Amino acid sequence: MSTDLRSSTPGVSLTRFWAGLEQKVQVTTPRAANLGPLTTADKFFQSIQLTRDEARSLALDLFRFAEHQELEDV
Q1: By C-alpha distance, which of 1, 68, 59 is closest to 27?
Q2: What does residue 32 show for φ and ψ, rounded to 5 degrees?
Q3: Is the pTM of this model over 0.85?
Q4: Burial of 74 (0-12, 13-18, 19+ CB in 10 A)
Q5: pLDDT per residue over 44-72, tens digit each?
Q6: How far apart are CA 24 and CA 2, in angstroms?
Q7: Could you give the strand order of the β-sheet that contains 2-5, starting from the edge strand earlier in sequence?
Q8: 26, 47 in Cβ contact below 8 A?
Q9: Residue 37 phi, psi dihedral angles, 5° rounding
Q10: Around Cβ 25, how many Cβ atoms within 10 Å?
């Protein structure tokens, strides 16, 4: 069973779902036209699935980027 979650970002949808032993969130966006051909599904959307810990870590990285405090990997 999955549940759509409210997103404050236009064009981004969030879906919570059960993945065996834990809940995950799927982040889905329209696929950019300049990425070239992949599979049939990739022609329409691109998505990632994250555990709560992965989502927390990514959120911190994105917040740092939004605040011009990102860390470069050298």
Answers
A1: 59
A2: -65, 140
A3: no
A4: exposed
A5: 778 999 999 999 999 999 999 999 999 89
A6: 10
A7: 2-5, 13-19, 22-30, 45-51
A8: yes
A9: -75, 135
A10: 19
